Amino acid sequence: MNRAASVVTLVLLVGAGLGLTYVVQDASAPQIAREQRLLDSRKLLDVLAPDAYDNQPLEQPLPLAETGLSHSMLLAGYRATRLGQPVAVLLRTRTEGYAGVIELLVAIDANGRLLGVKTLRQNETPALGGLIGDWPNSWLATFAGKSRTAPDDAGWALKKDQGQFDQLAGATITSRATVNAIHDALRYFDEHRVSLLGVAP
Fold first, then answer.
1. What is the pTM of this model?
2. I need a surface site. Which of 51, 118, 137, 142 has the fewest CB within 10 A?
């Protein structure tokens, strides 16, 4: 085989390899994107047990009314279901901390009890209020099982404000803002339960 024929053969082989690579990547791109969305969703939704729901809550945001709350603002809401029945509502909320915005994801079961809280965004002081961004978070875990009325309104405050909750050490403003935002979310759930759960009153 002469040199020109070898070069042509090599070019054809490289072209075929590149074409095949492109076809494989193009065919697998939707699957890769789908897997990445599931991974992102699982990371965001780890306030819920993986077997507690069987839908993709983040793909169907709920319409929210009256999103400006007493101490926070709702950014989004999602419904988790299992076998078509609502099991939880997730409310994404924003409040003002010591050093800027704090965004939380608050998971509430169908009976109005808190399942979990996760910090999605914060700029608080490292080693103080910034600890709110840790996951898992032992301080945020202390709110699990609480509801709008347990404790009562007066109890939804820091102990230094005559409430029932400890604060993150050295982070009064961060802790107070978080407690208020969680209570806001629970109050909103109670007041909009029917529309959030999508069930008849």
1. 0.81
2. 51
